[in-house]
């Protein structure tokens, strides 16, 4: 299957999952996760009407963006180091991976210096995994008051990467947990957190059934990633 066929198939599955949850498919955003893939592959996606891309490394995105249509929009979905914030902010429309109060403070400060409003998601460590970044539920509640004082942040919602389970049904309870925590925090702090960024290639329909508003799909669009990062001067491996 070509990239454009993959995108069409995924959009159809998004519509189907949304319909089964009583929602309209066009209210769900698809991020084509393009890490590891080069500009030729992204150009095919753009030609198929896919304009939203997700990258997990600032350097890789910075090298790739000038080689892709200016109509494309970019979201950062990987861990952000404080020394990359200044570079990252102008490159990305949204940052899904604000995973600590410290990085939130850094982004807020630099956004102020650059005269920007940073649209962000708070990343939640929904299964309490030691190997993963993100706020625990307790840390989220303990941080929320200060987060809401950070005027250069627009906190649009929550994001999570549940433990990998080849059976998508195994992820359902984590997606439901993210939604429940979001609902509780909205209530407790009287804020709107409308977006839920959750669901990847193997489990996005389940995520949509549990309330995802934005899904992050890489492999099912572009195929297996052959390299860790794409670098300028290399051709697409797919
Ligand atoms: C790589 C990545 C994805 C996409 O994963 P696939 O399984 O290839 O769809 C989604 N979200 C994040 C945070 C990622 O790093």
Report what the structure shows:
It is a single chain. The protein has 238 residues and is an alpha/beta fold. Helix content is 38%, strand content 16%. The protein has nine helices and eight strands. The chain has helices at 3-20, 39-47, 58-64, 85-88, 101-114, 137-147, 172-189, 204-209, 219-222; strands spanning 29-33, 52-55, 73-76, 94-98, 118-123, 153-159, 195-197, 214-217. It has an eight-stranded parallel beta sheet. The radius of gyration is 17 Å and the shape is globular. The N and C termini lie close together (12 Å). The model has no long low-confidence stretch (mean pLDDT 96). The site of pyridoxal-5'-phosphate has 13 residues, from strand 8 and helix 9.
Compact description:
With 238 residues, the chain is of the alpha/beta class. The protein is built from nine helices and eight strands.
Structural class comes to alpha/beta
Q: Helix count, per DSSP?
A: 9
Largest sheet: 8 strands, parallel
- Summarize model confidence as the mean pLDDT: 96
Number of strands: 8
Tell me roughly what share of residues is in helical segments.
25-40%
What letter string, H or E per element, gives the SSE order?
Answer: HEHEHEHEHEHEHEHEH
Instruction: Give the names of the bound compounds.
Output: pyridoxal-5'-phosphate
Q: Beta-strand percentage?
A: 15-25%
Low-confidence stretches: none
Task: Report, as a whole number of angstroms, the end-to-end distance.
Answer: 12 Å
What is the radius of gyration?
17 Å
**Strand order within the widest beta sheet:** 7-6-5-4-3-2-1-8
């Amino acid at each position: 299957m070509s990239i454009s066929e993959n995108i069409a198939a995924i959009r159809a599955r998004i519509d189907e999952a949304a319909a089964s949850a009583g929602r309209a498919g066009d209210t769900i955003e698809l991020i084509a996760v393009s890490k590891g893939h080069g500009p030729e592959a992204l150009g095919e996606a753009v030609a198929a009407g896919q304009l939203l891309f997700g990258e997990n490394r600032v350097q890789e995105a910075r090298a790739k963006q000038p080689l892709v249509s200016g109509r494309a929009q970019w979201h950062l979905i990987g861990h952000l180091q404080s020394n990359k914030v200044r570079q990252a902010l102008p490159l990305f429309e949204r940052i899904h991976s604000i995973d600590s109060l410290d990085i939130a403070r850094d982004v807020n400060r630099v956004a102020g210096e650059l005269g920007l409003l940073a649209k962000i998601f708070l990343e939640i460590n929904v299964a309490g995994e030691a190997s993963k970044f993100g706020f625990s539920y307790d840390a989220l509640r303990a941080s929320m008051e200060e987060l809401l004082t950070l005027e250069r942040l627009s906190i649009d919602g929550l994001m999570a990467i549940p433990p990998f389970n080849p059976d998508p049904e195994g992820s359902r309870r984590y997606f439901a947990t993210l939604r429940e925590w979001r609902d509780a925090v909205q209530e407790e702090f009287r804020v709107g957190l409308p977006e839920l960024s959750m669901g990847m290639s193997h489990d996005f329909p389940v995520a949509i059934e549990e309330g995802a508003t934005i899904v992050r799909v890489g492999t099912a669009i572009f195929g297996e990633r052959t390299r860790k990062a794409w670098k300028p001067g290399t051709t697409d491996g797919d």
